[in-house]
Amino acid sequence: MTLFHPSPAQVAAIARTESPVCAFLHDLDALRCQIRSLTAPLPAGTEFFYAVKANNDPRVLRALAPHVAGFEVASSGEILRVREAVGPGARIVMGGPARTEGDIRTLLAHGVERLHVESLHSLRLANAVAERSGAILPVLLRVNLAGPVPGATLTMGGAATQFGIEQASIPDAIATLRDCRALRFEGFHFHTVSNNRDAAGHAALCAAEIDLARAWAGEHGLDLRVINLGGGWGVDYADPAWRFDTERLASALRPLAGSGPRLQFECGRIVAAYHAAYLCEVLDLKRSHGRAFALLRGGTHHFRLPSSWAHDHPFHILPREEWDHPWPRPEIARMPVTLAGELCTPKDVLARDVPVARLRVGDLVCFEMAGAYGWDISHHDFLCHAHPERIFLDQGRMAAAEVTV
């Protein structure tokens, strides 16, 4: 699997205007290669859904559509985004911890094939809405495991979180579901950890979840059709060359797949992260209390991921030789620099005290691995700064993002 680096020609095309450079650049051809490399090793009978929350741009959704089983969404808005971008034939499954009557009506109206239910109240609510609509809604019960679970960047199960039905209450959920005549049980949903970089440990967790689902089905006489194992396949922002061992995960799961219930995954970050870059022009350089700061056209209002995860995002510097001002060009050399954005808050930082060989006002900083949970989770209109350009490379052509509401 490759890591996207914009070519000099691509950078020059973005930097063609007099305005300071600020842009996301996505390589859709590389994205297609990425999804094929992730799904190819999976055992027969396994389905791979793309988690739309990672990046919901219509061009990204259309590029992935031929290569995934469908799309996992967490809101009514994401349902509409998939339908508008990909069309009525795309398979959609829906999860998320806070469901409303409007969500249930929307998923029924737009042919969502399954709801992942996270509480007994949500079961009853979904049943009431489906019953009034004269529909039968397939559901999975999302499980919050008793734990402990293997370490990962984020944990949604095996601990006190707002996600899923705690393991001890699953028998109660099954009993409640039997009285919900407008719902049809199809299986269990486990999305326990996110960004797990241990493929062997993740495989062991998945195997334990499969065993638990089968045991519950046998104990309660359930027709177990689907076991959704969530996402959680990790990336390493500290080491962009590192890759999750998909082959090892697939090999460990192969004996458990095929006969019986379908296994499903719903991954986002590992799909979208690697093949986009965020380019920001250096607007100013300054020293303060013994530290050096580069102020960028851009910041966490476009790319919140480094702030939300409290990490130094990987980057490299793209020098530009143009300098049109009569005064000396500010620069720093052979020292650590903190890359800060244009917001009026000290939290607007993308990397802290990272050594650089040379950096000048007017140079570009290229943040790698910017395709997942960047633009989509950011507070775009804080201070009403201009949005970045969003450019897509597709079969050798560059195109701007479509306007979405």
UniProtKB/TrEMBL annotation:
Residues 277-371 form the Orn/DAP/Arg decarboxylase 2 C-terminal domain. CDD domains: PLPDE_III_PvsE_like. Its cofactor is pyridoxal 5'-phosphate. The keyword Acetylation does not apply. It holds the Pfam family Orn_Arg_deC_N. Gene3D superfamilies: Alanine racemase, Lyase, Ornithine Decarboxylase, Chain A, domain 1. Keywords: Pyridoxal phosphate. Residues 34-273 form the Orn/DAP/Arg decarboxylase 2 N-terminal domain. SUPFAM superfamilies: Alanine racemase C-terminal domain-like, PLP-binding barrel. InterPro entries: Ala_racemase/Decarboxylase_C (IPR009006), De-COase2_C (IPR022643), De-COase2_N (IPR022644), Orn/DAP/Arg_de-COase (IPR000183), Orn_de-COase (IPR002433), PLP-binding_barrel (IPR029066). Belongs to the Orn/Lys/Arg decarboxylase class-II family. This is Type III PLP-dependent enzyme.
